[in-house]
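User: Fold both of these, please.

Assistant: Here is the first one.
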Amino acid sequence: PCSPAVLVSCRQMQDAEARAFAAGVSAEALMEEAGAGIAQVLTQFHPRPGTAVLYLGKGNNAGDALVAGRHLHTLGWRLLGRLSSPVDHLKPLPHRHLLALGTHLELRTSPLTVADAPAGPLILLDGLLGLGASGPLQPPLTALAAEMNALRRQAHASVIAMDLPSGLDGDSGQPHPDTVVADLTITIAQVKAGLVADSALNHVGRLACVRLPGLDAFATLGDASAALLTPALLRPLLPRRAFDTHKGQAGRVLIVAGSPGLLGAAELACEGALRAGAGLVTLLALPETYPLLAARLPAEVMVKPVTTFLEALDLPHDALVIGPGLGREQDEVVRSLLSTTPAPAVVDADALNALAPLSASFTFPGPRLLTPHPGEWARLAPDLAASEGDRRAQAVAFVARHPQVTLLLKGARTLIAHAHEPTRINSTGHPGMATGGMGDVLSGVLGGLLGQGLSAPVAAATGAWLCGRAAEVAALPSHPQAILPRDVITHLGGAWRDLIENAY
């Protein structure tokens, strides 16, 4: 069976369903699988029961919402319903599921407004349209989509789209007018290509994929040049430690980071490397910063005084992290280190800025994992950043020029590209990560993973997923807007657990 992380077109998904039905697979069984999976994912992000409003079109997408609602009800959720048409206009399967809910579903005929918003968690399930729809929304769906968007904006309700946000083109990712703005999109069986398009980002939000075992045998190959990062995709790539592993075998990571006024970046990178499982983490410190860094770094980090960062070349290391909070005075040293050490290296922040003038011609003696944010990307690859191609096309073009480089292009949908490999698209994280220091944590995590022997593409994919998931775990008892980089470090253990136990 094909991986559910592979991108498919809407037609390919419909063809897979048709083959399944022709082989005797029951549409009702698939709807049960889909609805149960939707509820399972939803409660991963909303564990405290509240009120769920089901927005229901006429088709089977409404049936998925109703099955999910039934599972939510058993967990203590209150269910409200908003129909786009009379009950008897529903297709047979969703009609049956609506009747089965009975009085557990409170149907509302008048629009819901912010004044109606109940206390506690409020989620809105977008079950208006599925794969078969195309073109702009039509009345009365436009009014229901506008209602969802207004409640999201004014009452801070969370919108959950099922398969696709209603109004979004599933192939191109172009939103039509009045398209639903989702915080979480739970796509079914396989990832539709349009969901990862740049133009779709603010309508899709967090993206998760629910497997349908009943469809696995009929899944289509789709676009094998890209894949959504999921635990199922990552887990087989992660090595298991032997029981007798010792610290010298778990990765020696050297970190070149920090400068006056930017010492916190070095601290965050070191702690990220530790939480990634590095055996030995050493921070190099120049005379002007050594006393301060030695006093503030965790006891597990070795702070080594050096007169020049070039001393890193004489120290044993399995991976190098260079750049967080480094400042621009070390540009020549950065270039010298990166052109000399054969060890894999994470290149971030000011180390990227040091490389930028040479980006057309740089070569390295070992793997390099570059981690630019949009501003650094514009300096590192100005021609690509200014091009009309989407971010994925830009990333692929860059690594084609630099086959020794793995590119982790940061963003709300972080991309990982390496020559001749599928581009990996991260699914985790939330807008609360838009705060200084998150990239420093990521750099440390990446260095810790490289030091343990993961290839640069696998380390990049794993680190991006872990940091995003750690931020999600941290927000569960809190709120995304209050999350700090230190919270991500604290919750990396929970993210590791979810990665192994197959969270979404």
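And the second sequence with its predicted structure:
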Amino acid sequence: PFFKNEVSGIADYKKNEKINFLAQEYFNNRKPLYRFIYDGPSCSIELHESWVKYIYENYSIVKGWAERRWLEFLQKRNPATPAIVAKLKPPIQRDALTSQNKFWKDIFKVLSVRCIYSNKILDIHNYELDHFLPWSFVGHDKIWNLVPVLPQANQEKEQRLPHPDYVSSLADIQHKALETYYNHFQNKKNFYSIIEPYLSDLSLNEDQITDYSYLKDSYRNTIYPLLSIAKNSGFPKDWVYQG
């Protein structure tokens, strides 16, 4: 960009050589970011002292800009891979699932909840929330991908991909939970905050959120392709709970 006018119209394969020459010629008055220094067979890079000072004083800004452009580059070339940011820069500490646990504990007060993997009835004091699609793949804690399960099942599953047969069970328990919350606990503001991730990620509208056929189809249309992508990314597939 320091020599935009000079290289305009030049064939791409000649631009690097031209820029190299211009950086040498105008290093002190045009102040390009760097130039190559040739010393016999060896070569080094000299950063302009003005840019060294700028980068030193604004390092966090420059780093943030560079990382954003890098992530945009990777996401554009890997459109089928979700949450590239979370994969490349995972948080030092995962968020607590406070609101998600509160939602399910409200459901436990009204509904008998079974583990989708073991089919055993769960105890409100002895369950864990499982990321159906592993967190290390999706990179989020959205409630549509969380389901209460036996602690033993969650520990056995780890980062494995559940067998596709479990998707129907996931949709079934999610439908029962949403319907229960709608009938017993919802006020307009709270219910919308609960269902917003379902609406945005599963391509549903508010009228369809408690309709089992719509919800089940949306889960299948969303999760089956993601299971395939995760499998191709190296996640162990077709996990079935052994007890």
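The beta strands are 34-39, 42-47, 128-131, 146-149.
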